[in-house]
Amino acid sequence: MTTTSGGAGGATAPSAQELPTAVDDEVLEQERRRWTPAKIAIWAGIAVLGGLGWVMIALVRGETVNAIWFVFAAVATYLIAYRFYSTYIERKLLEPDDRRATPAEHSENGQDYLPTDRRVLYGHHFAAIAGAGPLVGPVLAAQMGYLPGTIWIIVGVVLAGAVQDYLVLFFSMRRGGRSLGQMARDELGTVGGAAAVIATLAIMIILIAVLALVVVQALGESPWGVFSVAMTIPIALFMGFYLRYLRPGKVGEVSAIGVALLLLAIVAGGWISESGLAEAFTLSRTTLAWCIVIYGVVAAVLPVWMLLAPRDYLSTFMKIGTIVLLAVAVVVVRPEVATPAISEFAGRSDGPVVPGPLFPFLFVTIACGALSGFHALISSGTTPKLVEKERQTRFIGYGGMLMESFVAIMALVAAISIDRGIYFAMNAPTALTGGTVETAAAFVNSLGLTGVNVAPDQLAGAATMVGEQSIVSRTGGAPTLALGLSQILSQFLGGAALASFWYHFAIMFEALFILTAVDAGTRVARFMLQDAVGTFVPRFRDTSWRTGAWIGTVVMVGGWGGILIMGVTDPLGGINTLFPLFGIANQLLAAVALAVCLAIVARRGTVRYLWIVLVPLVAVAVITVTASLYKIFSPVPGVGYWAQHFAYRDAIAAGRTSMGAARNPAQMEAVVRNTFIQGSLSIVFLVLTLIVIAAATIAAVRSIRAGGLPGHEDEPVPSARYAPSGLIPTPAEKELEKRWLATAGAPARGGGGH
């Protein structure tokens, strides 16, 4: 077997064993540095278009701004960042070697470890990381205006979010696909590793609970939405059996059938909502919460092929397809954005949607759209066990997160394109709006927003247009995003007659996003819990042990299910009080992941490029620590959990039977209980994260002083296969791929790749 790299040229080798398994590094470098006039013109055009987009968004001030500029600014920035900054990280910091076999190759077992076509794996990875965050966070943050959110979503992903995903994926791959907790134990020692494992498990409970809460808020009292989303379960099960028994390997075929069935489910939901069956599918939020809890238990213990894998196929097509469709619609329709660049609430702490000042709450509210700790669990969980070649980690890790950021930008555009009065009526909790169109209109008009004067008939008409009974206080961001999508897409295709179809299409699109994350998150959390308990009871580490799987699943679902029920029954509006904690927890988990990366990079001795990790780590640490301190110590009840807790507790002690949003003693006691739990979790998350950061700093300093230390990477194994590194192979990669195909044929891969 030849293990040295070679160029792409030359005669075809007589056998696969004699072919090089990688294009020579110098050849790739020459291709990157070869600037033809056409190449220069293309990149100059991208830079000019992106620069013009940023000028129009950030500097030009008028009554409105065209949404098309958001698309141009985002896409141009992503392309430039991927081509130049991610390449810089690859060359200077990571130095991937395609002559080295990945865990998918040297540990292939047909299940967890399986070389997977890079394009298929990109879809799998994106489906797993893309949950509610990029959809909901930007919608809620739109309260503060479009400019701060746009800057953080785009700049934050380039320098922080995509960097974290890329580094964690690469380092985990080099360690046989070890989890974030396992890497933390290796790099940070006993105390830091234990803190990281506990923090990760605790944070996962909050993350999954809020993801599920978003679904509940979107589907509550909506028979159309409940029916359509419920139908995705039998559709996914059918696809699973179809792929396994009826037509194995026919991924494209079953995906086409699945998408067609999904569209039929949306149309049928409209029929159901107008029939005698509507009442059966009109479920309260509490009932929906229990349904999702039961679903979470079942989905996490079923074989992956039966539900999770087909749902991945479905959601990948729906997610990427819908976002691309929306981007095209924005370019064609060119909706005007009347929301100000920086709103009246940017400098205040009494926002009706997100209480608290712009810094730090804008950043923790946007969360996944720019940086997500949840991604570190996927990047160190399933994906590194499937990567076919080391260089592909840039396309999958960095590139996958850029796509999620684009989802966030599109969500922001959808939110800021609807009427501002309707936006606040939808996203303010019932305690403020009163729950009726009359009281909601009066509340919104009392905010004193420039140019906003909403009428009850306007709110009622918006609900009727999309086939809903009411849009008042449909908090959680998902209904607002669905309304924005509906307005843009109905102008693009179908007109007002299809507005209700597009609204419920968007609801299903969002639910698929979120339920995929609930499925995968619960399963990952169960694996993490089994691994942690396995330290003391080794049998638990056997993930095929059914008893252990059930115990782990019930414990984790019980944790997030309890928080979900608490959020659904919260008198203060669960999503409004829990989403800041979700954002903080998610960003604290990102700080944990970046801290582990810091220790690894320092141990490798690449101190000169440590700033690549240090910059996002310091930024997210400052943001999240500040946000945590606000939630713990702020004397403003609308911001601080403990201030709220003591205000309601003192009111009960004084004999009051109602206060603010709590209309009776039972609701007042619920606020006291909920704020105690939320405040306590804020303290626990902060302390654990600071321990991890301190342990990582100590480990990094020790490594720097020693000039680098022996790492925990697996011993290299020579690769015996070849595959291109990116979506589009370079000329040298195409040539070498042709030689491999001519000699050895198409390699065996997972996911139907060829």
From TrEMBL:
Domain CstA N-terminal as annotated: residue spans: 66-627
Record's subcellular location: Cell membrane
Keyword terms: Cell membrane, Membrane, Transmembrane, Transmembrane helix, Transport
Membrane topology annotation: Multi-pass membrane protein
Compositionally biased intervals (Gly residues): 1-10
Transmembrane segments: 40-60, 66-85, 126-145, 151-171, 191-218, 224-242, 254-272, 287-308, 320-338, 358-378, 398-418, 501-518, 549-569, 581-602, 609-633, 676-701
PANTHER family: INNER MEMBRANE PEPTIDE TRANSPORTER, PYRUVATE_PROTON SYMPORTER BTST
Family from the record: Belongs to the peptide transporter carbon starvation (CstA) (TC 2.A.114) family.
Listed name of the protein: Carbon starvation CstA family protein
UniProt lineage: Bacteria, Bacillati, Actinomycetota, Actinomycetes, Pseudonocardiales
